[in-house]
């Protein structure tokens, strides 16, 4: 495809860690692709290989049908010829240059004014980077990259230099700016909330390898293997056994509880996976669309800003993520009896080779 980013390369680092990338990202269908994974997974190294800041040991990299790197033919385009804008984790702004001068550094002549307006920086044009807030510095770094008219934007943890409140506030603004820039983007992050807000596609890296690629919601709903599920932060990963099936549903035994989920042909030992936000809590058993209603006991409540992580013993260990207001409304306390409900469609099963941990 004309808009594909193709990478089939390998890079061994000095400490023995190896990054092996083998993927095709359809950037014409995914304006923002998030490269997601835990710290040390190799995400930044892969981004630098794409940018030409580091050189693979072997393989190929191509974008829009143009070869950037090919070890077999000796092709290795320098960063300037790849037309990829790079936004560094610490922004790497020129401290002695004004906002305008930073944008003009790599911009075509007479284009800086339009870019400053586009990113809401026109009123800050004569300020130095040290006179800007963290969010303004981030906008300036992105504006400088866009001003150079790149064909691809590469962003390395673009919100990590900000405090937590600023990161939460700026996630949606960054998404808006990336879409407004109309340049395909590849964004590195290890933050699950950022990945879900920013991305159209999600590429999950674990231990130097790309484990899964697809639409963000699909990847979070249906991780390909247990390691990917752990990397994605799926809180409920439960060993289970298929007991029966009927009317398009599978009946599972998990611990001392039973669950129902959509029948997709799994048999025998499986892992039942579902996200904490897919678990709803109630004081009484009430009718609803969920197939699974499990009585349980509250074993832990931990506030995490506007939400709370609630741990339950329902004959199997469960984790629910609810609003702080729900904690107050339900008067959740340790030892309290509560009902946990999960829709059959929210449960994803891994079986066969994906269930070695069962």
Can you walk me through this structure?
By secondary structure, the chain is of the alpha+beta class. Helix content is 23%, strand content 37%. It has 10 helices and 21 strands. It has helices spanning 43-51, 79-82, 99-104, 112-118, 134-147, 164-181, 192-198, 216-221, 226-231, 324-330; strands at 4-12, 18-26, 32-36, 58-63, 66-70, 75-76, 84-87, 152-156, 185-189, 201-206, 209-215, 236-246, 249-254, 257-262, 269-274, 279-282, 292-304, 307-313, 317-323, 337-342, 348-351. The chain has a 6-stranded mixed beta sheet, with helices on both faces. The protein has a 5-stranded antiparallel beta sheet with strand order 2-1-4-5-6, covered by helices on one side. Strand 1 and strand 2 form a beta hairpin. Helix 4 packs across helix 5 and helix 5 packs parallel to helix 6. The chain is globular.
Taken as a percent bin, the fraction of beta residues is: 35-45%
- Strands side by side in the biggest sheet: 7-8-9-3-10-11
Report the C-alpha radius of gyration, rounded: 24 Å
Number of helices: 10
Supply database-style keywords:
single chain, alpha+beta, 10 helices
């Amino acid at each position: 495809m004309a808009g594909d980013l193709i990478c089939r390369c390998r890079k061994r680092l000095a400490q023995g860690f190896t990054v092996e990338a083998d993927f095709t990202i359809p950037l014409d269908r995914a304006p923002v692709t998030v490269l997601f994974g835990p710290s040390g997974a190799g995400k930044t190294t892969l981004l630098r290989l794409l940018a030409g800041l580091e050189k693979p040991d072997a393989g190929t990299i191509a974008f829009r049908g143009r070869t950037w790197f090919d070890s077999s033919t000796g092709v290795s385009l320098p960063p300037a010829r790849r037309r990829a804008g790079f936004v560094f984790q610490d922004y790497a702004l020129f401290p002695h240059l004004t906002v305008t001068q930073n944008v003009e550094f790599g911009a075509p002549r007479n284009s800086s004014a339009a870019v400053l307006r586009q990113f809401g920086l026109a009123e800050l044009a004569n300020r130095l980077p040290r006179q800007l807030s963290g969010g303004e510095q981030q906008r300036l770094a992105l504006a400088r990259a866009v001003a150079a008219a790149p064909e691809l934007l590469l962003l390395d943890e673009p919100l990590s230099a900000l405090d937590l409140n600023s990161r939460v506030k700026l996630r949606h603004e960054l998404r808006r700016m990336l879409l407004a820039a109309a340049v395909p983007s590849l964004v590195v992050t290890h933050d699950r909330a950022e990945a879900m807000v920013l991305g159209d596609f999600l590429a999950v890296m674990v231990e130097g390898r790309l484990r899964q690629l697809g639409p963000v919601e699909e990847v979070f709903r249906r991780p390909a293997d247990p390691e990917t599920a752990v990397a994605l932060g799926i809180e409920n990963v439960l060993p289970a056994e298929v007991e029966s099936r009927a009317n398009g549903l599978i009946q599972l035994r998990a611990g001392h509880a039973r669950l129902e989920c959509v029948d997709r042909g799994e048999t025998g030992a499986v892992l039942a996976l579902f996200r904490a936000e897919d678990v709803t809590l109630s004081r009484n058993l009430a009718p609803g669309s969920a197939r699974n209603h499990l009585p349980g006991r509250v074993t832990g409540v931990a506030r995490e800003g506007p939400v709370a992580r609630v741990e339950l013993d329902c004959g199997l260990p469960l984790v629910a993520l609810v609003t702080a207001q729900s904690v107050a409304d339900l008067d959740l306390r340790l030892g309290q009896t509560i009902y946990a409900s999960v829709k059959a469609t929210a449960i994803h099963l891994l079986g066969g080779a994906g269930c070695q941990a069962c």
